[in-house]
Amino acid sequence: MRNMTIEELYEKLSSKEFQDTEHGDIFYNFYLFQYNAEEEYSMRRQIEQFTVNLARPTNYLDVLKLNLFDEFCRFLDGMSFGKIDDSQLHYFLTKDNAGQHDAVLKSLTAKANSRQFYEYINRRIMEHVNAESTGKKPYVFLYGIGSMFPFLRTSVFLSGYEEFNETSKYKIIVFYPGESEENSFSLFGKINDRHTYRAILLLND
Questions:
Q1: pLDDT tens, 113-134?
Q2: What is the pTM of this model?
Q3: Three-state SS for 98?
Q4: How are beta strands 200-201 and 30-35 bridged, if at all?
Q5: What is the pLDDT of residues 64-103, one digit of tens each?
């Protein structure tokens, strides 16, 4: 077995069988696509192109793209810091610019690993799933994983999101800039990410 190429991934996503959200692991719906970290921005362009191609009449798929780092920033920006600041994102940026790096890192890590952040991601997904659309909605593309380090590890996110996950409604394709050996995953090929919780590694014969 070997990792899928980007062309093979598109073929997989276009498959009617794979589009069936009730096909595959009935308990979990995370699929991990690995690629070299050096290809990050090329991969992001490819994700945009995938979204366009999958929406064409041959597929009629409405894909939700979630850049996890961008979503984290929106999550923080949408919360106030008591009476001090209307935006927690603005508050933390101000503190970091003032040299309070360690305190900001600790606070951001706690926010990224909070139940509230998982709830926010779940709302984003379910708003998409339940919105009016002419296309089917089998896929959520999750990327920006590397940008979330060191605030949140992929394995921790997948584990923490489990209680919100609705496996029969969508499949989440995680674009992972790293490599794995058995159950040991390495972000950027250098940082141990531990076991990626019950994610299905996309491979090809």
A1: 999 999 999 999 999 999 988 7
A2: 0.88
A3: coil
A4: parallel
A5: 999 999 999 999 999 997 788 899 999 999 999 999 999 9
Q: Which two tokens stand for residue 194?
A: 């531990």
Q: Are 29 and 161 in contact (CB under 8 A)?
A: no
Buried b (16+ CB within 10 A) or exposed e, 146-184: bbbeebbbbbbbbebbeeebebebbbbbbbbbbbbeeee
Question: If you write DSSP's letter for every residue of 123-167 in order, what string do you get?
Answer: HHHHHHHHS--SSB--EEEEE-TGGGTTT--HHHHHHHTGGG--T
- Burial of 66 (C-beta count, 10 Å sphere; 0-12/13-18/19+): middle
> How many Cβ atoms sit within 10 Å of the Cβ of residue 188?
16
Token pair 């890590």 is found at 109
Residue 88's nearest CA partner among 67, 107, 106 is 107
Rounded Cα distance, 126 and 137, in Å: 11
Contact 31, 141 (CB under 8 A): no
Residue 64's DSSP bridge partners are 140
Q: Are 195 and 184 in contact (CB under 8 A)?
A: yes
How many Cα atoms occupy the beta-carbon half-sphere of 190 within 13 Å?
5
